[in-house]
Amino acid sequence: MRNNRHTKNRVFAPEKTLADKYPPSESCTCEVCLQYCIRPGWWTVEQAKKAMEAGYAPRMMLEISPELSFGVLSPAFRGCESQFADYAFMARGCTFLQNNLCELFGTGLQPLECRFCHHSRRGLGYRCHTDIERDWNSAEGIFLVVQWSKITGFWEREINTE
Asked: Which 3 state secondary structure label does DSSP give 144?
């Protein structure tokens, strides 16, 4: 067994939150940044919960992981509100993007992925996306998707359309 006398009194820094890891970028309406806005970014589980509490559940959509093991609530494509994400609607853009401006900007409800992505951070979004994916692949994430489905009547509609 390893001697722990060197680590016994060691103080470890608390783990960074996703918001600490991925700080907000400057506001920008350049072509690159607007492209990020057309494809809705993801909230963390806690952010999505706050957005639901603020009454935005009907403007969310459910994205399912490729392996079908968990879901992510995100701002909907226009026309996909309270439904499964249907990529046929992707070109319509995010339901919160109005006149090339985000309705959620400055409200404290803008998704972490949207706040972080910026033309000056090209290539860094993948790490942010992957960390948010891990956040949703959790008991808290599954519970929130179930709550959302009850609020929006999602499962009842899906069952009745089969």
From this structure: helix
Give the sign of the dihedral formed by CA 51, CA 19, CA 110, CA 137: negative
User: How is residue 34 annotated by DSSP?
Assistant: H
Amino acid at 118: H
Structure tokens at 26: 């400057």
DSSP 50: H
- 97-154 residue pLDDT tens: 988 888 998 899 999 888 877 666 677 677 878 889 999 999 999 999 999 999 999 9
Beta strands (DSSP E) in the chain are: 60-64, 71-75, 97-98, 101-102
Q: DSSP 3-state assignment of 77?
A: strand
- By C-alpha distance, which of 133, 139, 140, 85 is closest to 112? 133
Q: What are residue 97's DSSP bridge partners?
A: 102
pTM over 0.70: yes
Q: Are strands 97-98 and 101-102 parallel, antiparallel or unpaired?
A: antiparallel
Instruction: Write down the H helix ranges in 3-124.
Output: 18-21, 31-38, 45-53, 112-116
Q: Which amino acid is at 91?
A: A
Domain residues of the chain, as ranges? 27-160
